[in-house]
Amino acid sequence: MSLLRQYRRYAPPDLQRYCRFVVAGRHVGWVKPVLAKELAGRADVFQMAGADLKMQPALADAAQRSTAMASVLEDLRAQGRIPGWRSELYPVNQSFGETPLLVMERAAAPLFGVAAYGVNLNGFVGRGWEMKIWVARRAPTKSVDPNMLDLVVGGGQPLGLTPAENLLKECQEEAGIPAAIAERALPVGIVTLLIEAGEGLRVGQQFNFDLELPESFTPQNQDGEVAGFELVPVSELIHRLRSADDFMYDIALVLIDFLIRHGFVGPEERDYLPLIAGLRRPIPFAMEPVA
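Now predict its structure.
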């Protein structure tokens, strides 16, 4: 079976069915029309402008917008409409590294279809077809994709850290990888994510790293978010990706990217070109100011 089956787990979202979310004249996300209409009832925070949901221009800076958004999200949380609250702030912007237009609770990002960033680590042992990849089983208590297969290390990208600094932190928390080893990880690019989730859109850009781990090393979870680890031969990994949906969707993309970069999937694969094209699909934020 083709590895493209992983891409077909979610149909491409029809963005015409959403309202654009606009902050300070910048298109930064998408909101379901029903929610947009409801939010527009908070006239101190939002307004409808045609088909767009805009934050009020009177909220003139990031601090004011962040405070106003926090108030709205606390109300939605009290109604049970934001599962998996993390008390972790994410920047809202069009591109990574831009000065945030505001910050908001990570768990609410899909409601507004704003871009969320993260880091991933492909931890492997050996080379060639003798290679094995460390795979984690997510804890059953995780709010997103419980019990599904994951990379040895991965996590959201918080404010105040570079991706490399964040990776070192996640390596320690998720797998007990000491800094002296984690610092050898190499940045290898990104994958993008744009899928419809139950509450809205999951929009993501994942920074990926490769790390060859010592054969003597065994991951040890430190934060309770992993149920266990497994060292999987590369041939078995390819079989799982071809035949099952055991992996989180975005992690399946990261692993396909890994397999292509390391030569396990090449031009002889019938779907080689669409596989590559599907890894970094553009996220169609409007790049010009919105009138």
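The helical segments are 33-39, 62-78, 109-112, 163-175, 179-182, 234-243, 249-261, 272-277.
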